[in-house]
Amino acid sequence: MTSAAHRLNADLHCHSTVSDGVLRPEEVVRRAAANGVQLLALTDHDELDGIAVAAREADRLGLAFVPGVEVSVSWGGETIHVLGLSVDCASAPLRDGLARTRGGRDERAREMARQLEAVGVPDPWNGALRHVGNPELISRTHFARHIVASGLCTDIGEVFERYLSEGKPGFVEHRWARLDEAVDWIVGAGGVAVMAHPARYRLDETALWAMLAEFRDAGGEGIEVVCGSHTADQYGRFADCARRFGFRASRGSDFHGPDEGSVDLGGLPPLPDALVPVWRDWPQAAVTS
Ligand code: AMP
Ligand code: MN
Ligand code: MN
Ligand code: MN
Predict the structure, then answer these.
(1) Hey, which CATH number is domain 105-164, 1.25.40.10, 3.40.50.300, 1.10.150.650, 3.40.50.2000?
(2) For a pLDDT cut of 70, what percent of the chain falls above it?
(3) Does residue 189 contact residue 88 with C-beta atoms inside 8 Å?
(4) pLDDT value at position 289?
(5) Whose CA is nearest to atom 17 of ligand 1?
(6) Whose CA is nearest to atom 6 of ligand 1?
(7) Which of helix, strand or coil describes residue 75?
(8) Which pTM value belongs to this model?
């Protein structure tokens, strides 16, 4: 039987101009409300700066809202994303940790620009900056939008394939936070650490399970099961995985903008039955369930 918690239209993963989304935080909230989202978390990459504005707009619209963040982590040579949900944005260790994680982005972006220029991308630094909303958060997505705008590729997916993924001319190796420290920052801020889009990582089954075991042992409690980058088959695979590891399950579109990605805010199917939704005991979820 599907519980009220399962039926709640929760969207706990999305981005604004404070990281690599195209809508401002308050616009993300308005779109979520218009789409029927009942519980929203804004989860900008390595940043909390959009939370106050988003929370205010959600309050005005009567939309239940939890503060969130998506932390960039390096594990076994792969970049992993860990969501921190329901975090206290005033937590000094979390804020300091995120500031350190953001710190290397400027130099990385300058090197990306040099490499992209060398393979014929026109004015990559200024071009990417035109898409950046937060100078502390220059991401590969901003370069990708510039490369699409310049006519070299037809969509962002093609840019990542040709220029921005590992081994391609604009890819610059980078060391992000450690898995255990990212989880510590989140848990220390009273939040729930959730493994984002586990199907996206280039880890074989053994490595993926080792990473998830390490995540759980560090204090990780949740995993995205229904999310914008999973197929329906992967919902089932990660539902099994959630049960095996004892993780709570999360649901999030990973919305970046109206013309990007395959799913809009609030547009995903419900969580499979028999999983424990990550929001089950949250007071914010009780408001609308
Ligand atoms: P960065 O944090 O600068 O490494 O950028 C990572 C972001 O790039 C992710 O959060 C996604 O928004 C985007 N991204 C990564 N891979 C792809 C892809 N294959 N297609 C589209 N967007 C991608
Ligand atoms: Mn992103
Ligand atoms: Mn991500
Ligand atoms: Mn994301």
Answers:
(1) 1.10.150.650
(2) 98
(3) yes
(4) 44
(5) 160
(6) 140
(7) strand
(8) 0.98
